[in-house]
Amino acid sequence: MSDTKIKQLLAELTLEEKAMLCTGKDFWNLHGIERLNLPSIMVTDGPHGLRKQAGEGDHVGLNAAVKATCFPTASGLAASWNTKLIEEMGVALGKECRAEDVSVLLGPGTNIKRNPLGGRNFEYFSEDPLLAGDMSAAWIKGVQSQGVGTSLKHYAVNNHEHCRMTVDAIVDQRTLREIYLPAFEKAVKQTQPWTVMCSYNKVNGTYAAEHKQLLDDILVKEWGFEGIIVTDWGANNDRVEGVKNGQHLEMPSSGDMNTKKIIAAVENGQLTIEALDKSVARVLELILNSQASLEANTVQVDLQAHHELAARIAEETCVLLKNDGLLPVSAGKKIAVIGALANSTRYQGAGSSKINPFKLEQPLDEIKKQFGADNVTYTAGYHLNDTEDSAEIAKAVELAKQADVVFLFAGLTPKYESEGFDRQHLNLPQVQLDLINALGEQLSKTVVVLQNGAPVLLPFVDKTAAILEAYLGGQAGASAVAKVLSGEVNPSGKLAETFPASLDDVPSQPYFPGTTKQVQYREAIWVGYRYFDTTNTETLFPFGHGLSYTNFTYYHLKLLSGDKTQFNESDSIKLKITITNTGDRAGAEVVQCYVGQKSPSQPRPAKELKAFEKIFLEPGESKEVMFKLDYRAFAYWHKEKAAWIAERGDYQIHIGSSVNDIRDTATIALETGIVAEQPNFALATYFDPAKRDFNDAAFSALLGYDIPTPTPITPYTVNSTLGDITNEPLGKPLFDDMLSVFTQMMGGDQNDSAAEADRLMAESMVADMPLRNLPVFNSQQYSEGQILQLIASLNNKETAN
């Protein structure tokens, strides 16, 4: 959109209109200016489908949402390692948005999976920033190709749900740059999303919604972001400070509360009109970009074609974790299908991303289609509400004895993983474990099919013949599973996250999720496989792992630049390797390229993913895979120099089928002109992460300053949460009132497990809600003045005591 048009509109807008444009009109819509032909545009939830709400549009339940295609969630999408397929999904999402006059789809979720207990991990791609960035860029490219905007989220360091609205994430600058920002950086630089959504939390003492370093210095000035920065719903803290520091749009509507504050700030000189115009100009550009698509809206959506696309995607998200030869299962076998999830599938996550699918497959039905109904028997084996039932277990055991093969469906019901709260453990529900234990000798002919959004512990891993991770496969995930089990589809998914052998092995676990006011990222760069691989810690299944029904052989890794080269920031290194399908089935392999420095002066992982490619090969077919590694592939972030540094010396380039299955390695000597520094002995414990002695002194040295003291619970402020004051006589009625409001918002699902998840989510969200948000989410009952009076009364009581 031309600068001339924006300047013209800025000249015609009143101060009141400018202030108004910087906040939402209601829950999902932006303000328009009718006299200037600026429409009110709609934004709505994704990311794995369109969740457009009817009516008042402030509900999370399914019943109020339009019918749409429910694709696999991000944890599954990333397991495909197929960016072209994810882009194709984005195109379909964009078309469905266009058909419903939605201008911005809120996604993708790009945050790093710091810990497998993160309640929203199903909505995020990976523990690795390169893979997360590539997936995000592909998703955005697809959606925006249809003239629909996206909202890259949640920026930044939003890695758990507990107290997410006010918690302060304490993280050092190197870790921020190497782990938590690169996925956002890649997506911004490659695709220019129309919007970036800032997270609720503080980062090193400052709310993300007004964080100058994150918003203005890095996102806009350093990465060149051209779109608008929008708050997560209720993430605004100080509206005027937000405008000053690069936050352009507050969502949802706060009525005229913050509009008045912006006007007053301009009038009293606290905020310059130039600073306000920067925000307004970006909002105007978003509206104008959206207007073009709305006026040209001739999109016809073929939902059946999108269902078929969802099925193709789900096929590639399935990860074959283990196979002792039982899979694939040939026709004519007597099959026992066991597990309530086979007939009441878990196909998506819980929370604000819930999609109302226009059709939904069930695994039992699809297995009958695939293998013949006469060959298939079924029993639930357990109850989704976790009620123990010995009779049902006995029935399942008897059914298994009579079958040639058992397909046992297990996984996490909504109450175990959801937006709003974190998981308490990595276990499957006890009723499912009891069933599996009872099957005993039948496990040698059993395939366990998992439906879950994040890693689980599998104490039966050595007893069962095969394990298929289906993740949350969307509305067409059931047929994908059936085709993989039969061999019609050769599985090609690879884990985008480590499955730890024990929760205690996870390096962030002692600090996760922290206290109600602060979380310390003491493990620093030692996240996911970077820790497990470097320390040789045994895992249940490693990052990048996934089996196939065929075999792939890697030949002749060659560095095209030779094994020694001059290297600076504008240079790159090319390498190639040949992959051959040596089996008797067509299949796909994800070729993974890792880099490690041989003798680093700084703590560095043994391997870091720097490139990958998914290739499809017929039996006997070979393909040459080329990789190009730039300067960043060899560099670390130097805190003092505030720059990426690649030291001179030897680096190893590993090519493999997973981080633990390296097929070939080459060493290259880089002459970068940068001599290795003397190691900082204050960081000694970070050089030896296996000891996990990330003590106060070491963490302070990493930060470069003393560890901040967490914000005290009292005296109460506008950022005190309802959970903080719930035991106060004045606080309990507020908590109960808002719980009623949010419980109604969560409504819409009927089954017991989903209802339980909605209750837990509502309770968690209300407990974590800062008092400043009461006038935003319940403006009819609470004003800002009333909340300030309440806080004064609470603090007077504290003083009196």
UniProtKB/TrEMBL annotation:
Pfam families given in the database record: Fn3-like (PF14310), Glyco_hydro_3 (PF00933), Glyco_hydro_3_C (PF01915)
InterPro entries, per database record: Cellulose_deg_GH3, Fn3-like, GH, Glyco_hydro_3_C, Glyco_hydro_3_C_sf, Glyco_hydro_3_N, Glyco_hydro_3_N_sf, Ig-like_fold
SUPFAM superfamilies, per the entry: (Trans)glycosidases, Beta-D-glucan exohydrolase, C-terminal domain
A GO molecular-function descriptor: beta-glucosidase activity
UniProt keywords, alphabetically: Hydrolase
Signal peptide, first to last residue: none
Fibronectin type III-like domain location: 589-659
Family: Belongs to the glycosyl hydrolase 3 family.
Name of the protein in its database record: Beta-D-glucoside glucohydrolase
Organism: Marinomonas polaris DSM 16579
